[in-house]
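Invent a record, attention on tokens:
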Amino acid sequence: MPPKKSNIPTGKSNEAIEDVPSATPADISKASGEETPHHQKDSRVPSKRKANNKEATASKTPRRSARGAPQSQPDPVKLLKYLLSPSSLDFCRPKDEIEDLKNRGSDLRTYSSSTCSPFEELLCAVILSRPISHALGLRSIRTLFNEPYVFATPEKIRSAGFDGVRKALDEARTQHRQKTAEELVFLADAVVEHLGDGEEDVSLERVRKECDYKWEKEREMLKAHVKGLGKTGLDIFARRIQALWPNPYPFVDKRTLSGLQKLGLPDSAEELKKLLDDHWTDLDVKDLEGDEEGKKRRAFVRVLERAVGVDLEGNADAVRAEAVPSPK
């Protein structure tokens, strides 16, 4: 008996009318993690004042002030320790996720701190590659992964169908709900038919076997079968899946490099891996699962996820200050 397919309505999407109004201005302003350029200051100064300033500069000994002094480069090992600790988590999370955890309890599944299956990681990559803000993406994931929906398997999504997935996204008050719902239903069908072994399989091990455990082939296979998964989505998936699949490791995507640079950490995959390896015995990683190599990959991914979250939430300076406090 052939596997069932989910019914998806055809025709033009009305998401532009239905979806956008429910997002707040704050959500829209942070879409795609792009930063708003600072307004440039007017540097025009009357010529007479410029001449006076030059004379004063020549006659005075330069002074150092705490405000004007350049920031010292933070200790990267202290930054690693802080990012790996629970203390850094709230700097990586949108405010509504922090409130949600307070109201619903620590058992709430979140993208920031929960362990996901390969299927769930793929679902998250599809959502997060949409042109929406960090906050809306994480809210959508929380809504889909928790009661009353718990869309953790292809079977759950196919049973809910387009209408059920669309209802969950409506509850998340996100954008592009029509198109995202369609893509998630297509994803569930693709996993059953091409990427997995049945409706309950969440391992995606079929992908690895058919591609001889070679990451570039796996990437191409996923791109060929998952609607809406382009380079950005594949990079998001690779960033996270290397905790479970050794073949992409070490991998750092371009978006995360920006976060690492702002914190003062190595901005290449190999250099960051070396930093972790060199100071492994100094890091507190008792809560990470797996053998030593598995723990190292998980630690690497945790650093990446928290670096990009800190950057998207605009908290890089605050994390630097917490990780390496100024001497009193």
User: Anything to note?
Assistant: DSSP finds 17 helices and no strands in the chain. The CA atoms of residues 162 and 182 lie 6 Å apart.
